[in-house]
Amino acid sequence: MSPRRPARRRRYPLSLHRDPVPWERQRPTWREARPAVIAEALKRAQARPSGNWYVVGATRDLRDDRPLARTIAGREVVVWRDADGRLVAGPGICPHLGAPLKDSPVRCGTLICHWHGLALSGSPFAGWEPLPAHDDGVLVWVRLDDVGGESPLEAPVVPVRPARAASLSAVYVGVGVCEPEDVVANRLDPWHGAWFHPYSFVDLTVVDAPAGADDGFTVDVSFRLAGRLVVPVRAVFTAPEPRTVVMRITEGEGEGSVVETHATPLAPDDRGRPRTAMVEAVVAASDRPGFVLARRAAPLLRPLVRAAAGRLWRDDLAYAERRWHLRSTGRFPG
């Protein structure tokens, strides 16, 4: 039986899911979800250059009065905008006596240590050295060459996105006890979607899986909205760099929209276990007239998008944490 192909353009964006199948009577996908295919896709992703760039967080989380802070691979990092609006980043430890700069205020573009008043404008000063930083309009990145150990790139590997002026974006951040590869491996297993997330996905079929040096999982799936109302699409999953997986809608409603999953290593927890921040950026676009209204209502819609992502990632981080736990104890069957 040939796989269902979503319509390229429907008169209405929603469809009615006909003849729904109970969860337990779905077609099993475990034979198709071959561990070797997932492992090879992960291996190819890990071999791609990142240029030592790591996602810190959402551009919208940058404030005028406080730095955006993250501990990346054990390194405290702060990011803010200077007096000219330029993005600057650097160590989050004050070079004077080690105060946590994440708790210090920003005044007129200057980060002022709240312990003794050491003022940082973003230029080298008193032993504090800036780090390369990049704002792609949705996410903020920092380059840590001593952590990544790769040949540095001038800018991070940012996926092609819909134009900012015609799209709606939202960012969700979750943290799990795992390593970045466990988050990436979760996204390179599209077969689990309708089984693990029945509240969000139905009729999921992996149309094409990568083979050899090829990359990309092509998936036909319907996103469940409410009851039997669904949005059928075709999407392709790719990994442009070691800590990023991108789902791009290639056919159906919202063609060109992307969901980016970025994995950033953090500091270990108090038991010495690795922790990873999963930063998911949803960049949605549509040429339907009603999408203009959706963009105007973006402040109201973003919390809904983040809530939907959060529900999915409560499950998917459990998957990633379980994978790490089995790997760390030598019991992972894949």
From TrEMBL:
Residues 53-142 form the Rieske domain. It holds the Pfam family DUF5914. Gene3D superfamilies: Rieske [2Fe-2S] iron-sulphur domain. This is DUF5914 domain-containing protein. It comes from Streptomyces gottesmaniae. The keyword Glycoprotein does not apply. PROSITE patterns: RIESKE (PS51296). SUPFAM superfamilies: ISP domain. It comes from the Bacteria. Keywords: 2Fe-2S, Iron, Iron-sulfur, Metal-binding, Oxidoreductase. The keyword Phosphoprotein does not apply. Transmembrane segments: none annotated.
